[in-house]
Amino acid sequence: LPSDQSLLASGMASANKLPLQETVPLGRMAWRLADIVVLSLLVAALVHRSAFILSRGGSPPWHWVVALACEAWFTLLWLLNMNVKWSPVRFETHPERLAERVNELPAVDMFVTTADPNLEPPVVTVNTVLSLLAVDYPADKLACYVSDDGCSPVTFHALREATEFAKLWVPFCKRHDVQVRAPFVYFSSSVPERGATDDEFLREWTSLKNEYEKLVSRIENAEEGSLLRHGGEYAEFLSAERRNHPTIIKLLWDNSTSKAVEGFPSLIYVSREKRPIYNHHFKAGAMNVLTRVSAVLTNAPIMLNVDCDMFANNPKVILHAMCLLLGFDDEVHSGFVQQPQKFYGGLKDDPFGNQLEVLFQKLGFGIAGVQGMFYAGTGCFHRRKAIYGTPPDSIRHRKIRGSPSYKELQNTLGSSKELIESARSIIYGDTLTPKIADIPSRMEAAKEVSACSYETGTCWGQEVGLVYGSMTEDILTGQRIHAAGWRSAILDPNPPAFMGSAPTGGPASLTQYKRWATGFSEILVSKNNPILLSIFKHLDFRQCLAYLVWYLWTLRSVFELCYALLGPYCLIANRSFLPKMSEPGFSIPLALFLTYHVYNFLEYMNCRLSARAWWNNQRMQRITSASAWLLALLTVLLKTLGLSETVFEVTRKDKSTPDGDDSTEDADPGRFTFDSSPLFIPPTALTIVNIVAIAVGAWRAVIGTAEGVSGGPGIGEFACCGWLLLIFWPFVKGLVGKGSYGIPWNVKLKAGLIVAAFIHFCRRI
């Protein structure tokens, strides 16, 4: 297989050829002016509050000091966001220009990861695999690996059945230029227009649809016990437990010996060894096993990884990625290529704020103009050498003289001779390295490198492979690649490269945000802190600040919660923290509130989203901050103190189709639902305390007890509490709701105790 160096050389030798990609700066002069206006108002608010505190002399009111600290924090966050958004770029790719360079195309190993057949139904995984097997790319340069961390015979059975269906599906897609090659999408719509005039096509389409429906039926009706009784290929699963079993690797399809089927890549099932005494490191551990297994079997210089629910939506996705991987003058610009996450079948107006459209369009393209897009864990093409921890050639040649010895590579990569040889060919372009043998002959070597003890005493999980130590191993790994000196590129073709399913329902969304926030905080308090990497390694300072936008989520929750409690405190304790209407400073917070929300609203309009989507995301950001981010902070604090360990929670994958038809009986899937999770205690308490505060403040206003009292609350404090009740309206409804739409009594009780403690605090201080 060609090395990265040979690919680069061949690309640079073709100077007279049209460029494969173009970097397009995105103009945003008006947005920059708006950024500065908001920043100016934030600074004005800080100056006004500081002047008031200094004018009081002696000991200033403590709640004004808290307000000053919170507003200073909000100003810092705004500066961090300005840094990310300041110079956005996008990349235009031209895959049609690769037609004359087919021989230059590198091989690609495609990874699909799944962990639980109940939360991630095998039929979802199968559709993702089938979409990858059918992409427009030379089949002899592709191999697809499926990691089953659940060691499920049902998942293996599903892939085995899918292999037979692929013999029909892949040729059909390529003959008829099918645009979306996930069968559940293709067959969810009516017969294509061509079927009205082409009887032969209609018969073929109908027959294939029937075969797909039979495939789905066989997968969904499969029972683990029944499969194990068959023995044969399932014999290895007989004594396997999910967390205690040997390695199981199955070659479901070998392209090198199956030339009769047009365009069908090799397909390999991998369930790594697990033992209770070893830490298996969740998805990062599974990805590192796939990296090693693929290295000894196919050793492609490029690796693509997708989650089991993220199908290839664009058949030319790999060609688009190659435009970025081969299209720059220097490999340093494309250590990895990341597609912004896009979702199918999402609920209208994004009621749970988890479709992330504005985040990727505004922050994603913004960070692409710094050192590059972060690694999002799915829909990403990596250079294998970057995953091995190797810096770009321009940096490596300045720092390293000669190649490391075999012993050094053994200490870094492990004891497998086959793995070391394959790594040499990737990192150093060693032409003397023998060609990789056929897949069946390398199965024992693959099992060796997937043993749970293989990483002991090596650099895997630290300087090599995906990095351990965080729930968000993806963004941490991308940061390590950036710190090595690489840049990354953002892939955004039309139609989108990949499509995945967004979590639906309040609990699932908050659980996902809690997992992300926990991982970000783990990075922040570790040796992988981006500030340290910016000082001691090659992480660009602006890129460091960009990473902090995400890593500070949990700290944001503290300041946002404190600021949210100032309004209720003032109404209950008969204080104020905002200027009165009659005071000259009143216009500053009013102008800041209106300007910020108009700015944010226009961002959603610019992304062609609705006003309802804007409001839903505003609401969910505050709810997430008061729940998921706050509990993530507590989780990391307990872990840091050695009192608990973080637990990886798999998000349930939805089987709905892109048109949103999931055949469920839920009359209102966009309505907030609740359970007994601790996630719901803080926002429930915040809702109750705002109701109590408004009632107390209104009671004082009616009976006139606040008259003549200096420093009492004004309209600003009432507006803050009223705004928060609007934000937390799902929880207001949940207090009186029933069933899953109602907040459970144990959550209400715990929240009520917190509110009682807060009111006691307000009356005492």
Automatic annotation (TrEMBL):
Entry keyword set: Cell wall biogenesis/degradation, Glycosyltransferase, Membrane, Transferase, Transmembrane, Transmembrane helix
Pfam families reported in the protein's UniProt record: Cellulose_synt
Membrane-related topology note: Multi-pass membrane protein
Cross-referenced SUPFAM superfamilies: Nucleotide-diphospho-sugar transferases
Keyword Transmembrane helix: yes
Binding-site positions, Mn(2+): K283, D307
GO molecular function, one term: cellulose synthase (UDP-forming) activity
Subcellular localization: Endomembrane system
Positions of the catalytic residues: D149, D474
Residues that hold UDP-alpha-D-glucose according to the record: E120, D149
Record flagged with keyword Cell wall biogenesis/degradation: yes
Transmembrane segments: 586-602, 623-642, 679-702, 714-731, 743-762
GO annotation terms (biological process): cell wall organization; cellulose biosynthetic process; plant-type cell wall organization or biogenesis
GO annotations of cellular component type: endomembrane system; membrane
Name the UniProt record assigns to this protein: Glycosyltransferase 2-like domain-containing protein
